[in-house]
From TrEMBL, chains A, B:
UniProt subunit comment: Homodimer.
Textual note on the cofactor: Divalent metal ions. Mg(2+) is the most effective.
SUPFAM superfamilies: HAD-like
Gene: PGP
Residues where substrate binds: 221
GO MF terms held by the record: metal ion binding; protein tyrosine phosphatase activity; sn-glycerol 3-phosphatase activity
Entry similarity comment: Belongs to the HAD-like hydrolase superfamily. CbbY/CbbZ/Gph/YieH family.
Lineage: Eukaryota, Metazoa, Chordata, Craniata, Vertebrata
Cofactor: Mg(2+)
Identification of the protein by name: Glycerol-3-phosphate phosphatase
UniProt cross-references to PANTHER family, sorted A to Z: 4-NITROPHENYLPHOSPHATASE-RELATED, GLYCEROL-3-PHOSPHATE PHOSPHATASE
Species name: Geotrypetes seraphini (Gaboon caecilian)
One Gene Ontology term, aspect cellular component: cytoplasm
Length: 307, 307
């Protein structure tokens, strides 16, 4: 198992690559924008891709926004794109529960309002988000806390109200091996503007996994499910598609897992040094995280499109 | 590296073993009691050991009780024992910060009131326990949340008020590699009476480790630090000491790590089947978790003491 060769994408090579694909899958944060600032040239690059007849989709692990919220942000930053082009982990988790797992009963959700909205839109019954502070007088009360007998799945997404009581309830449900265990994503940190970051959903997932002695099924990248959702709704040929992302361990690895071409853009999380260091790794997973190409910014795609 | 042979401790073998040791180290929950019920015969066994001139100490990973609280419970259940005989993970964490790390500055504590009390008694300045619910309007506010510039250590113990905000603060402190990172213990579950259990400290530790991209130093068993505290205060010869516990992965492994004899008692967490299955494991750590002896209950020690 070997990944890509991590070549710079420029000149005739860039035009050749773009001619060989008809679908581009973009991660969002760190690729198209950082916080509320679009990456310079991103709008022009996306517009040129669309003019050249390429299909453009957006794949994000972030579970704190609905499809509609992403479409609104794409519009606000001049990037274009409709709700149907956005495949976020909240939306795809709802799809999974409805279409793949065909969940009967409810989901117990550690997560935020956007995840709840996507579940509601998909008709997935669930126990909603919000604070769940300490109740009762001690350990016995927490262990005996009322569990809903209709719950058949535990879903973990980003939740700023994550608490010990939520962890205890998740464990209570997951003691039943028939209870599904899903996580929107496993990112360990959520980068913010200016180099700041906060704990990511992966931290909450690890806490629940450690309590339950079980591993969650991850919906987000590097799992292939977001791509499968795009392909199911849009008839994509993986040999004519490219994944463009800023993270080796999610975007590029998912691209590899799905047989797509991959481009690392250096406006976000991962560095070129990291990508190059993985080329000679004795770890197959690390070699799978080496992209085929890299660009300093997706604006670097523009010259090849204007030629 | 090989562990013990998992022989039943009875008859002449038991008398021989007890003659070969002068110090017995007991785990508490699952060994001496379950909840508020003493294990039948435990009081008699401890009394007989003391009459035979043996020294008896109590080593517990539970960080939710102080030395004084443990001494009170030992008295209440007729088991005897003074504060100075109790080595809990809360007390030993305080010792570590004061005597080993010689902490200058404060500790940021994810933990409960007992841990705070032990830190206070040891003169370790710290930011105290209690609820820390969501504040501010969003991710930027949480990342920018006020951090105390005097904090030089993060300590994770059992905390029913564990929250995303606490996780975010811990990450904020641990970004500085000079900040110590300790955990009272890494038990994944806390067993209660009647087969119930709740998430253990290990779940909270994993969440913080995942965010910080660092591993906590564990104070509790199977780390040897609790034993080192006993030995420092009491001049113990490890070749004449035995660890008696109900968990292979903490009690027995610590005994092995410290060069002690080990006895598994079957009144608690681990089973004889589990212990036997580890004998032929190809994993050295699992083989290190095989006890030298097992008893069905520590009351089984009585006949050898009454002979």
């Amino acid at each position: 198992m070997a990944g890509g060769r991590c070549r710079p994408l420029a000149g005739p090579g860039a035009a050749e690559l773009l001619a060989s694909v008809d679908t581009l899958l973009f991660d969002c944060d760190g690729v198209l924008w950082r916080g509320e600032q679009a990456v310079p040239g991103a709008a022009e690059a996306l517009a040129a891709l669309r003019r050249a007849g390429k299909r453009v989709f957006f794949l994000t692990n972030n579970s704190t926004k609905t499809r509609a919220m992403y479409a609104a942000k794409l519009g606000r930053l001049g990037l274009g794109g409709a709700e149907r082009d956005v495949f976020g982990s909240a939306y795809c988790t709802a799809l999974y529960l409805r279409q793949v797992a065909r969940l009967r009963g409810k989901a117990y959700v550690i997560g935020g309002e956007a995840l709840s909205q996507e579940l509601r839109a998909a008709g997935v019954a669930h126990l909603g988000p919000g604070p769940d502070p300490v109740r009762g007088g001690g350990a016995g009360d927490w262990a005996a806390g009322a569990l809903d007998p209709d719950v058949r799945a535990v879903v973990v997404g980003f939740d700023e109200h994550f608490s010990y009581m939520k962890l205890t309830k998740a464990l209570g449900y997951l003691r039943d091996n028939a209870c599904l265990f899903l996580a929107t994503n496993a990112d360990t940190r959520l980068p913010l503007e200016g180099g700041a970051f906060i704990p990511g959903t992966g931290c909450l997932v690890k806490a629940v996994e450690t309590a339950a002695h079980r591993q969650a099924q991850i919906i987000g990248k590097p799992s292939r499910f977001l791509y499968d959702c795009v392909a199911a709704e849009n008839d994509v040929d993986p040999s004519r598609a490219v994944m463009v992302g800023d993270r080796l361990d999610t975007d590029i690895l998912m691209g590899f897992n799905c047989g797509l071409k991959t481009i690392l853009t250096l406006t976000g999380f991962s560095t070129l040094e990291e990508a190059k260091s993985y080329q000679d790794s004795d770890c197959p997973t690390k070699r799978s995280m080496v992209p085929d190409y890299y660009v300093h910014s997706i604006a670097d795609l523009l010259p090849a499109l204007q030629a």
